[in-house]
């Protein structure tokens, strides 16, 4: 050994061939010795650990899916020295070693059922590290599963060696992977472990699914690789892993060979072994069971050449805890990765994929995923966080939408209420306007009738009056004894005068002798048209304005409204027979002309005021010549909607303001009704009242002249 060390360290350049051969022989010899030591150590552990089967402890709930990561090298802590290091004391970080000083590295190895050639390789590798790193003292202890977990939690080990599935079983202090074993049976350390299900050769069971409800033999404290992998296969096939197997026959720890005996003796329908256990038995010189047992669902061509029935998982790995200094971790990793391959084809590499182990524990709800068995808030969040997030944002969106929609509804409601109130107000105004128009029409009709009655009865009453006066004169010339007759005739005269006074008052009312105001004709006409449209009497007829020129007139507003309303009513009735009925209203100013009545000029030859021309044109059918000539002349005409006095009222009111009503034929075949009213032209410096008075006197003069020229 000393010769090999000298050759390996100092004499590589002097005797390379001889030293290398010597080094290889020493490594092979140390491997065989390590195997013997491991067998002796395992035999001692069997003697200590075997006994009555203890109840299995429930794994604590954990939340971290991966208990260790790849090596992460941290900055060393400030250096310090420690002369005496106990076996259980953690190794200080960054120690400067003097001659003769050695630091302890506590190594914990998981004990497995023998024969176990990967365990022998671990012993061989520890011997190699002792040789290559003499500055460290490696103290090795073998632990059952629970004891090794407890030692890791208490930080009683610096380096641990076990299967990858062991380290994922539950949450433990942060562990860093140093290296993973590559054996002659599996070239990929990420796909080097599995489980094998054995049955008797004459068993009717063919597949893992056939184990449902069966009695199966397993080794206590060696659930993986083994039991967990088989249950995972059943879960992937759609079975409930918790109730898949009927019962378990648990062998004491480190007695996996007893599982084969249980199957052969009929104490179990099947047994679960770790992959390569049968091959390890053959290598150790045990009895061959090829004719007595067979493997269910044997897998081939997946990278593992041993008998196995499940998918492949990462194999054995060497990890370091937080207590191992960074320098020591680096040196151990470097030595292991550069260690030559042994005679069995075993060497160290790195495992890079642990996803299969994580998915197995997640599906079985074991280890760090045990929380999935309880419906806690944590599990609900982990299981359904996408749905929870989507539901939260959906609810938030609905709430925002509801708030916005409520505001819009309130706003629209206020607008509808306002529109409804305006519509109700407009309807009320239209109803009131209609009632007013009806009242005005009735008043106009009564006035027209009064004018007609006064005109017709004036002459008979005048005759009665004249006759009564003549009779009085005759009686006055005769004998006075006719006093009673004279008194009676006087009474007739008084009553006749009284009747004439009443008729004169009625006639004055019919002529509209009311207070006159100065009005802007175009504005007043526009208001009247708007009121007419608002009353609903337009009956879908389009009423539009033509030319609207400014000009003032002295009229009573009610009389002007009666004139416009009656003209519009007649125009709408005439145009309503067309497909597109139209009525056009215009207000224009005509040039001044001398006012004449017949052949008599006004006193002083003064010119009459200019006239404002109000025209209402419709596109109704063309009238016959006889009907056109009779417009405004007929006292009454047949009508299904009134007395037919509209044009007579317009004519009477127009003439009462010294105006004229005429009719013209339109180019489109309709009729144009034209009302001319004198323009109110105020004198310079005169007030409106004085102007109105003078205009009234002028209108009275014109009216008197017209009355004088007209026949009785």
Automatic annotation (TrEMBL):
<feature type="domain" description="Histidine kinase">
    <location>
        <begin position="452"/>
        <end position="681"/>
    </location>
</feature>
<feature type="region of interest" description="Disordered">
    <location>
        <begin position="684"/>
        <end position="712"/>
    </location>
</feature>
<dbReference type="InterPro" id="IPR005467">
    <property type="entry name" value="His_kinase_dom"/>
</dbReference>
<keyword id="KW-0902">Two-component regulatory system</keyword>
<dbReference type="Pfam" id="PF02518">
    <property type="entry name" value="HATPase_c"/>
</dbReference>
<keyword id="KW-0067">ATP-binding</keyword>
<keyword id="KW-0808">Transferase</keyword>
<keyword id="KW-0547">Nucleotide-binding</keyword>
<feature type="coiled-coil region">
    <location>
        <begin position="409"/>
        <end position="443"/>
    </location>
</feature>
<dbReference type="Pfam" id="PF00512">
    <property type="entry name" value="HisKA"/>
</dbReference>
<dbReference type="InterPro" id="IPR003661">
    <property type="entry name" value="HisK_dim/P_dom"/>
</dbReference>
<dbReference type="Pfam" id="PF12974">
    <property type="entry name" value="Phosphonate-bd"/>
</dbReference>
<dbReference type="InterPro" id="IPR036097">
    <property type="entry name" value="HisK_dim/P_sf"/>
</dbReference>
<keyword id="KW-1133">Transmembrane helix</keyword>
<keyword id="KW-0175">Coiled coil</keyword>
<keyword id="KW-0732">Signal</keyword>
<feature type="compositionally biased region" description="Polar residues">
    <location>
        <begin position="694"/>
        <end position="712"/>
    </location>
</feature>
<protein>
    <recommendedName>
        <fullName>histidine kinase</fullName>
        <ecNumber>2.7.13.3</ecNumber>
    </recommendedName>
</protein>
<dbReference type="InterPro" id="IPR036890">
    <property type="entry name" value="HATPase_C_sf"/>
</dbReference>
<feature type="transmembrane region" description="Helical">
    <location>
        <begin position="384"/>
        <end position="405"/>
    </location>
</feature>
<keyword id="KW-0418">Kinase</keyword>
<keyword id="KW-0812">Transmembrane</keyword>
<feature type="signal peptide">
    <location>
        <begin position="1"/>
        <end position="43"/>
    </location>
</feature>
<dbReference type="InterPro" id="IPR004358">
    <property type="entry name" value="Sig_transdc_His_kin-like_C"/>
</dbReference>
<keyword id="KW-0597">Phosphoprotein</keyword>
<dbReference type="InterPro" id="IPR003594">
    <property type="entry name" value="HATPase_dom"/>
</dbReference>
<keyword id="KW-0472">Membrane</keyword>
